[in-house]
Amino acid sequence: MEPALHRSVAELRTAANASHERHRQVYLAEKAQREAERQAVEARARQQRIERVARMGERAWEEALSEIASRKPKGYEEVGV
Asked: For 44-78, b where at least 16 C-beta lie within 10 A, e where not — what string?
């Protein structure tokens, strides 16, 4: 192989490798961005579920307290005078 041709092949190979590496870095950056966005969506959904369950628990607690307050304790009887 002629030295000039050999150098051209080596230069092309180097350029192709550099191009491949640039594309790989862009792909990895985009992949990382998509993963970060997916995790953010999951975190928001998880937080919304936690808040919804907390509201349901709060409501249930308030209903239970209301029910307890509206009844007289067992064994409590008004004695007619």
From this structure: eeeeeeeeeeeeeeeeeeeeeeeeeeeeeeeeeee
**pTM, full prediction:** 0.57
Tokens 């209301």 locate to 66
- What's the pLDDT tens digit per position in 5-46? 667 988 999 999 999 999 999 999 999 999 999 999 999 999
Q: How far is CA 22 from the centre of its chain?
A: 29
CA distances from 13 to 4, 9, 69 (A): 14, 6, 83
